[in-house]
Write a structure and sequence with these properties.
Layout lengths: L7 E2 L3 E2 L1 H54 L18 H6 L10 H4 L13 H27 L5 H6 L8 H9 L11 E2 L2 E2 L1 H10 L9 H7 L1 E3 L9 E4 L2 E7 L2 E4 L8 E4 L6 E4 L3
Antiparallel strand pairs: 1-2, 3-4, 5-10, 6-7, 6-10, 7-8, 8-9
Keywords: Hydrolase, Membrane, Protease, Thiol protease, Transmembrane, Transmembrane helix
Protein name: NlpC/P60 domain-containing protein
Family: Belongs to the peptidase C40 family.
């Protein structure tokens, strides 16, 4: 900046006007510097303060990242206390891999599936027919009991009319009942079922038998068919009768039929003899 020339008074003194001009010029120069300098100074101070702040923020951030990077269990308070100790279950999970043997049949366990039973018209009809048959049998038994007043099996066992037992006589007595109707559960001449017929005949010879074809078969001794004679018993699954000779059987067959002689219709049978 150009300086104003100083006016000097005689004797080397500066005039008042010149002094005033110098002061004003200096003042203006100082004001100019003052107007410019604060901007630079402020910027420099802001920069210095901003740099320090940035350094502080960066330091704090680095500390936070380092803290997060450390495993959480490193900061667990009282981790050595019993309540923070590793449990047996946790220790097992950190152990070597484990394996479990499973039986082959366990992996192929059968799976059952519920089924829905549907009642059809045919099944209803079958049930109705079965109930009708049951009621008919009950009616037959009622009339059967009312229609017979002769000796029973118990009466014969107490006083056998044929005390001398032989198979020919047994068969002869059995033939007297040909034509008697089949009645389920019957054991008198009013009506026989298969084992009731055999039981009633043998009772007249003083031989007590169960009212069961299997039980009667268990009482006898198995023999070959070539050795069989009339009066021996033919035993089938769920049925029996008297051997009639020549591959024939005398028996009470089924409901709606009567005591009769007919060929043995199956190979699933055996012959047993009572009294030996």
């Amino acid at each position: 900046m150009a300086r104003s020339p100083k006016r000097r008074l005689p004797g080397g003194r500066v005039s008042k006007a010149a002094t005033k001009a110098i002061v004003q010029a200096k003042t203006r120069a100082d004001d100019s510097e003052t107007a410019i300098t604060p901007v630079s100074t402020i910027s420099t101070r802001r920069f210095r303060r901003g740099g320090v702040a940035n350094l502080v923020v960066m330091s704090i951030s680095a500390g936070l990242v380092g803290t997060l990077a450390i495993p959480a269990y490193a900061f667990t308070p009282g981790s050595e206390d019993p309540e923070f100790a590793t449990t047996a279950a946790a220790a097992l999970t950190k152990a070597d891999p484990q394996s479990v043997d499973v039986a082959a049949e366990a992996s192929a366990a059968p799976v059952s599936q519920d089924t829905l039973a549907v009642t059809t018209g045919a099944s209803i009809q079958e049930a109705a027919e079965a109930e009708a048959a049951r009621q008919a049998a009950q009616t037959a038994m009622t009339s059967y009991a009312a229609s017979y007043d002769g000796p029973s099996v118990g009466d014969f066992l107490a006083n056998p009319p044929y005390p001398n037992f032989d198979l020919a006589s047994v068969y002869s007595v059995a033939t007297q009942y040909i034509g008697v109707p089949y009645v389920y559960g019957g054991a008198t001449p009013a009506g026989f079922d298969c084992s009731g017929f055999v039981m009633y005949v043998y009772a007249q010879f003083g031989v007590s038998m169960p009212h069961s074809s299997a039980g009667q078969g268990a009482m006898g001794t198995p023999i070959s068919e070539s050795a069989a004679v009339p009066g021996d018993l033919v035993i089938m699954p769920g049925h029996d009768g008297f051997y009639a000779g020549g591959g024939m059987i005398l028996h009470a067959p089924y409901e709606g039929a009567s005591v009769r002689v007919q060929p043995i219709w199956t190979s699933d049978y055996s012959i047993v003899r009572i009294g030996i």
